[in-house]
Amino acid sequence: MELSDRKKLILRAVVENYIQTAEPVGSKAIVASAGLKVSSATIRNEMAELENLGLLEQPHTSAGRIPSPQGYRLYVNELMEEHRLTIQETQKINDALHLKIRQMDQVMSEAGKIISQLTRYPTFALATGSKKAVISRYDLLMVEENSFIAVLMTDGQVVKNKLFRLSETVSAPQLQLLSTLLNTSFTGLTLEELTPELLKVSAHAGEEAYSLISLVVSFAIEVLEEMENHVVHTAGIPSLLAHPEYQSLEKAEPLMNFLSEMGERGSLPAVQGKNVKILIGPENLADELKDSSVIMASYDIGGGMQGVIGVVGPTRMDYADLAARLSYFAEGLSRMFGKGELAEPAEE
Amino acid sequence: MELSDRKKLILRAVVENYIQTAEPVGSKAIVASAGLKVSSATIRNEMAELENLGLLEQPHTSAGRIPSPQGYRLYVNELMEEHRLTIQETQKINDALHLKIRQMDQVMSEAGKIISQLTRYPTFALATGSKKAVISRYDLLMVEENSFIAVLMTDGQVVKNKLFRLSETVSAPQLQLLSTLLNTSFTGLTLEELTPELLKVSAHAGEEAYSLISLVVSFAIEVLEEMENHVVHTAGIPSLLAHPEYQSLEKAEPLMNFLSEMGERGSLPAVQGKNVKILIGPENLADELKDSSVIMASYDIGGGMQGVIGVVGPTRMDYADLAARLSYFAEGLSRMFGKGELAEPAEE
DNA sequence: TTTAGCACTCGTTCTTCCTGAGTGCTAAAG
DNA sequence: CTTTAGCACTCAGGAAGAACGAGTGCTAAA
Predict the structure, then answer these.
(1) Domain range summary for chain A, segments of one domain joined by +
(2) Whose CA is nearest the C1' atom of nucleotide D21?
(3) How many CA atoms lie within 13 A of B157 on its CB side?
(4) Within chain B, which residues score under 50 in pLDDT?
(5) Mutate to test the interface with B, among A116, A152, A163, A175 (most CBs of B within 10 A)
(6) How far is the CA of B26 from the C1' of C21 (A)?
(7) What 3 state SS string does A280-301 have?
(8) Contact between residue B25 and residue B65 where contact means Cβ atoms under 8 Å apart
(9) What three-state secondary structure class fits A44?
(10) Strand C–CB A37 distance below 7 A
(11) Is A258 buried (19+), middle (13-18) or exposed (0-12) by CB count in 10 A?
(12) Residue A139 and residue A180: Cα distance in Å, rounded?
């Protein structure tokens, strides 16, 4: 059933009032805020109906109404006006984008910090790959006679390095050989294929060569594992406390713990699809998020990889504003990654 | 003036009781806990004197006593028994040490996470260098005709890389030349010396070469800046909330914000000297820490660098236990970095 | 269909009172 | 001189109650 225009207006007024004040909205407040030429009693009747429809809720009998998750959902889907960022806001975001950002996986973590500062909400950021990551290239650089650096590059243009110190010495030709072998046998393999291949090669190679190979390949495995686990960066967790719904510790603590452990355990709401996505209250899979909302936006990194950045907050969030900011920010990132020439689009 | 043995015993009992219960300690409790054969009235007299000396405090007239910062200080300096870790605890730390740790600056951040999990307190970790860091070596790896990877190594054995994409193309010989130039002119220079040198070279080099050089040198500057700023990693901030002194938001919030921003702004209590250091309450420089204590331990990374890892908590902390853990952990890290052969002592 | 009026609900806040842990002091005992 | 028992006193914290007021639902009239 379609809502009457007046009901929509009222629902919207409730949501927007509540977003601002964090307090239940009464019928009088609606009369004052929305430009309706009816009395509060009429509004009360309408609100009672909206409550029956499950769009509004009463925290207790004699309080105003607050939007239910369904109410927010309807608001987000139909009622919300696309928020236009002010010039200052876009300027702020642009500045933030141009500053600071350096290496690929730092991009995600930096982006999170920036967004958190901009929005005063905790953020999370991660990268997802549509396909499995593989190592595309190995370079070995000699440091001293008993140490060398391995530089690995994945197909997603991510570069990682590691310094190895050995108990025995290696010569430059040995390293050269090793490098050739690695590039021949261990490129283009997914995580699952690496270990079997390692075993296979071990049969042919000598003891000493094998130990070197396995050192580097172990590192490759680490790198790929890290990428597959979609390491999550979080930032700005304490900013939760600034919002009235998390003033009570019982509310704040589990969520804060969840957020800070999210980074470790990689447990994350499954995400895909383009652009901005909003999950309201119980729409979230994780129990800890059932009373909170998540707004996230994805951006293209290139190389089949997508970055996702999101903010977490109370269901009472300024969805319009946040969605606009995230979206704009994500577009900026996509652009940065897109045309690699500009500025500093480098990756680690 | 030296305290009588009985006063010491009482002070110690107060501290240890309070550490456990987080509640003011009364005279009766002391009689029960310490093996003293005197009545509570006697204890009361003694406690009154200890209060006059500034070692104990009363939250309000009719409550028990709690240690003042000076009381804690005296306890830590003279009364505290060196805590011996149980075999399980050392085992736990050893496990943690061998696991996970990979790259140099990840060591610090990982170590922080581990300690935070072990202690249930927020941690911070950073590296300090006694001397200025310099770039000791540049390697340039060709990727495609319009992109290359720069691998930089500092004297502290820290390796960083970055992928550069260009709008024009470069040839292998060009890169070779560039690499030689960088290694000749831009190694061994501190942050302050790099920029002047860059200007000097720009005079001789052609337009195009100069733009490449400045790209890489800018990166070098970034790397050195990052190292000089002693980037601080924090972890486990939400675990603050588990402790009763931070149950009230007014107490918790400023500290949490301070900790989370510490990572950004690099503002940190100046640290040096070996081994474990304890800062109690007002001994901390930062205002936000005036009601908290910091326990930190340093470890040797090698190459003139020192790592520092610390925990932050209420003044009521189990100093003995935490100091022992941190110290043991730091020793483990020093050992790891010391003999480079073992396990995985690599650095980024 | 809208509105005014009114009784009712119920969270919030303020006050009051009570309790009990713990103190400081005094005076007697060791 | 030190220790102890006794006692009056203090004060945070919790419980209970009262007053308040914002907001509702319902009824009856416009």
Answers:
(1) 5-79, 87-130+230-337, 135-228
(2) A62
(3) 23
(4) 340-348
(5) A163
(6) 8
(7) EHHHCCCHHHCCEEEEEEEEEE
(8) yes
(9) helix
(10) yes
(11) buried
(12) 9
Q: What is the pTM of this model?
A: 0.85
Give the pLDDT of residue A103: 58
pLDDT at residue B167 in the model = 81
Identify the CA nearest to A126 among candidates A265, A271, A231.
A231
By DSSP bridging, strand A159-165 and strand A233-235 are unpaired
- Give nucleotides in strand C with any atom < 7 A to a protein C-beta: 2-5, 8-11, 20-26
The CA–CA distances, whole Å, from B276 to A159, A322, B273, B294 equal 37, 45, 9, 10
Residue B107, token pair as written in the block: 């060591």
Helix (H, G, I), strand (E, B) or coil at B84: coil
At residue B348, the pLDDT reads 33
The whole-angstrom separation of Cα B295 and Cα B293 is 7
Residues of B in contact with A147 (CB under 8 A): 340
The CATH class that applies to domain A135-228 reads alpha beta
**Distance, CA of A259 to CA of A305 (rounded, Å):** 23
**pLDDT digits 0-9 by tens, A240-274:** 999 988 888 888 899 999 999 887 665 555 555 56
CATH number of A5-79: 1.10.10.10
**Residue-level pLDDT at A167:** 81
Query: How many residues are there in chain A?
Result: 348
**Cβ-nearest to B253 among A104, A139, A241:** A241
The two three-digit tokens of residue B10, written as one number: 């009482």
| Residue A237 tokens, joined | 């967790």
Radius of gyration of chain A (CA): 26
| CA nearest neighbour of A278 among A230, A335, A326, A239 | A326
A36 backbone dihedrals φ, ψ, rounded to 5°: -85, 140
Is A34 or B288 the better-scoring residue by pLDDT? Answer: B288
- Per DSSP, helices labelled H in A99-171 are 104-119
Q: Which CATH architecture has domain A87-130+230-337?
A: 2-Layer Sandwich (3.30)
* pLDDT given for residue A345 in this prediction: 36
CATH topology of B87-130+230-337 equal to that of B135-228?
Answer: no
In order of A76, A311, B39, the CA distances from A319 in angstroms are 7, 11, 65
Measured in angstroms, the CA of A219 and the nearest CA of chain B are apart by 9
Mean pLDDT of the residues in chain A? 86
CB contact under 8 A, B165 and A341: yes
